[in-house]
């Protein structure tokens, strides 16, 4: 259930009520691919740094430990000890990016596991069954994410097949939610808009999927090789055709600047591996842009990563100490950087929500972008 609280231009301030709690939007979902945030960050840490939604990966949990195992353990919330919303992606992106040899047919996709090479088949029904076993709050529809370099004909055919798969996902989820042994019978379904960089294909697809009255809508297949300008152009064209009274999720995006720009175009939900991946490599986000703590200039720096930041790293530790940990390959260094970056993203979303509520989003976005470009 999505409530639109305020609009400032196209920017939306919303509230999405789920069986696992209320999500204040715009929101950044913290990515825990295999039911954990990489960098030794626990779900207790996630609570402390203001995380609203955790995102886990259907494909990875299907191959290890197995979605049946997670179901026997009481579902993902119980398994990883997290009582707030969880979104699971459909596995589609991993099937197409990791699987190498694969065969796409109307029924679904045959491919080899990247862990042990065993043959796996995944289609719309299988993806919904796996996600039902995981018992996430929000399940994503199974789709093909075609490469940005694919031909127009290929993308047209792919989008039409993804639409047919979406209808099958919706029907299968309704069936699964009605079964007596389903852990979360209130599981929600988001459909995914595809179409590469062809706005006419995307707009037509957006109109079609909007008719299905789903719980939310995602824009997929961006941030896969096209320029930022192309991504913003597609959002400008497509978002107006997705229902205003439903959340819009831009998948796999992105940098703080990407998020600020996409919010301005009406996007509610975001996820990206950048904060955790960059943190593990000593790259940390600040209001002045990104710092690389491996740089020698931080060796004797007694300041926190960012002055005034209330994350666990900045409240206690200096740049000099964290740099030492990273250089010594101590896991604590990675952990502190990941905690800081996730806190930075979650706190940025809080600031975005407040700016929209107060009707000053345009000025806020301009000031934030200018600050990040200055460098420290």
Automatic annotation (TrEMBL):
One Pfam match, given by its short name, reads TGT
* Reactions this protein catalyses: 7-aminomethyl-7-carbaguanine + guanosine(34) in tRNA = 7-aminomethyl-7-carbaguanosine(34) in tRNA + guanine
**Residues the record lists as binding substrate:** 89-93, 143, 194, 221
Q: What is its EC number?
A: 2.4.2.29
| Family from the record | Belongs to the queuine tRNA-ribosyltransferase family.
Q: Which organism is it from?
A: Fusicatenibacter faecihominis
Q: Name the encoding gene, please.
A: tgt
Quaternary structure? Homodimer. Within each dimer, one monomer is responsible for RNA recognition and catalysis, while the other monomer binds to the replacement base PreQ1.
| Organism superkingdom | Bacteria
The uppermost taxa in this organism's lineage are:
Bacteria, Bacillati, Bacillota, Clostridia, Lachnospirales
Name of the protein in its database record: Queuine tRNA-ribosyltransferase
Which BP terms from GO are recorded?
tRNA queuosine(34) biosynthetic process
Q: Which cofactor does it need?
A: Zn(2+)
Query: What are the residue boundaries of the tRNA-guanine(15) transglycosylase-like domain, all occurrences included?
Result: 10-372
Q: Where is this region: RNA binding?
A: 252-258
Q: Its biological function?
A: Catalyzes the base-exchange of a guanine (G) residue with the queuine precursor 7-aminomethyl-7-deazaguanine (PreQ1) at position 34 (anticodon wobble position) in tRNAs with GU(N) anticodons (tRNA-Asp, -Asn, -His and -Tyr). Catalysis occurs through a double-displacement mechanism. The nucleophile active site attacks the C1' of nucleotide 34 to detach the guanine base from the RNA, forming a covalent enzyme-RNA intermediate. The proton acceptor active site deprotonates the incoming PreQ1, allowing a nucleophilic attack on the C1' of the ribose to form the product.
């Amino acid at each position: 259930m999505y409530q639109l609280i305020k609009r400032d231009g196209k920017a939306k301030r919303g509230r999405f009520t789920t069986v696992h709690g209320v999500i204040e939007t715009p929101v950044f979902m913290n990515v825990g691919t295999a039911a954990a945030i990489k960098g030794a960050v626990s779900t207790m840490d996630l609570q402390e740094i203001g995380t609203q939604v955790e995102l886990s990966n259907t494909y990875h949990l299907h191959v290890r430990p197995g979605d049946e195992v997670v179901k026997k353990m009481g579902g993902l919330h119980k398994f990883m000890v997290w009582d707030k919303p969880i979104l699971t992606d459909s596995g589609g992106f991993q099937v197409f990016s990791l699987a190498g040899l694969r065969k796409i047919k109307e029924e679904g996709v045959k491919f080899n596991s990247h862990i042990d090479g065993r043959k796996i088949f995944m289609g719309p029904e299988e993806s919904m069954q796996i996600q039902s076993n995981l018992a996430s709050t929000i399940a994503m529809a199974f789709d093909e994410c075609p490469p940005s370099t694919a031909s127009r004909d290929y993308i047209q055919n792919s989008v039409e097949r993804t639409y047919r798969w979406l209808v099958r996902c919706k029907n299968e989820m309704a069936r699964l939610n009605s079964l007596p042994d389903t852990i979360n019978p209130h599981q929600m379904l988001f459909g995914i808009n595809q179409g590469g960089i062809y706005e006419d294909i995307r707009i037509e697809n957006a109109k079609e999927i909007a008719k299905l009255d789903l719980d939310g809508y995602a824009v997929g297949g961006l941030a896969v090789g096209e320029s930022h300008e192309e991504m913003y152009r597609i959002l400008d064209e497509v978002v107006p055709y997705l229902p205003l009274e439903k959340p819009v999720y831009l998948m796999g995006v992105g940098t703080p600047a990407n998020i600020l720009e996409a919010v301005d175009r009406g996007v509610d939900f975001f996820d990206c591996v950048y904060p955790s991946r960059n943190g593990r490599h000593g790259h940390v986000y600040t209001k002045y842009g990104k710092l690389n703590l491996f740089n020698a200039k931080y060796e004797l720096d007694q300041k926190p990563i960012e002055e005034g930041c209330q994350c666990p790293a900045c409240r206690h530790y200096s740049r000099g100490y964290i740099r030492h940990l990273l250089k010594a390959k101590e896991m604590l260094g990675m952990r502190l950087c990941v905690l800081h970056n996730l806190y930075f993203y979650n706190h940025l979303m809080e600031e975005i929500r407040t700016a929209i509520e107060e009707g000053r989003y345009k000025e806020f976005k301009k000031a934030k972008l200018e600050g990040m470009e200055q460098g420290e």
